What does this fold into?
Amino acid sequence: MKKISVIIPCLNEEKTIRILLDAILAQTYPTAEMEVIIADGISEDNTRSEISAFKEENPALEVRVIDSPERIIPAGLNLAIREASGDIIIRLDAHSAPAKDYMQRCVDALNAGLGDNVGGVWDIRPGAEGWVAETIAVSAAHPLGVGDAAYRHATEAQLVDTVPFGAFQRELTDRIGLFDESLLANEDYEFNTRIRQSGGKIWLDPAIVSIYFARPTFNKLAQQYFNYGFWKWKMLRRYPDTLRWRQFLPPAFVLSLLFWFFLGVFFLPAFSLLFLELFIYFLILFIAGLKKKTLGLPIAIAIMHTSWGSGLIWSALKSKA
It folds into this structure.
């Protein structure tokens, strides 16, 4: 039986780290064949205390904490990979909780040769109590918010461009390299792009499920999606052929709003077109919200679209400055 190294980048995750560790402990895969390596960015809350308490209560599961002073996800992942002794690496997130059979299903898919990196779908849950957090969780799984991102709503096993929490053989990083530390977001997509360019496959199986806790507030959601867009432009400059329609639409939407607004300053009828576009946009989101019985959905998805699009545009402008 192959040993698994679970690698987790972490920073100030006192509210969710114990949920994640409990979920790892509950795996059907033998505990003796797993190690957990947490690359912590010197957390300033009670994250380390929560980890220490878990270790004391559950000595059967090997859990190690290493410092990640750069406080960025790809650097933490790489530090953890270098510390790993397992044959298989499974990358998880401190905002997640894998289903009980997650590790076993990942190992089975790898052993069957279905993909060089395998993963599954997110069961997105609210990151806090209240209607805002619930709205964000629903919106983060809705096709209007995330397009055709398979790991958000796939129902059939398939080859895909990327998976968020991948499982791969340790030797894969010897062949294609580690995570790109120059990217502060989109590191998973970039890693999977190199796998595909090397002739490898990315396999997604909806039977492989992990809970993902969405951002709890609109402000944090906006920050998250602005960063996604900002660093996506960096990705696209290196790999322009990875552009997908779902990634093109948000910046196009933001640019269209800016175009009608500034045109309206000189040509008043353009404001009518601006209002018409916004009316149609929010009408579509409002109808989607009614179907999901989530009236806050238009707010959350609008934040996702405009933040992602603005982040990408700002990154493009800065790169030309």
Observations:
- The longest helix spans residues 297-320.
- The domain at 4-215 is CATH 3.90.550.10 (Spore Coat Polysaccharide Biosynthesis Protein SpsA; Chain A).
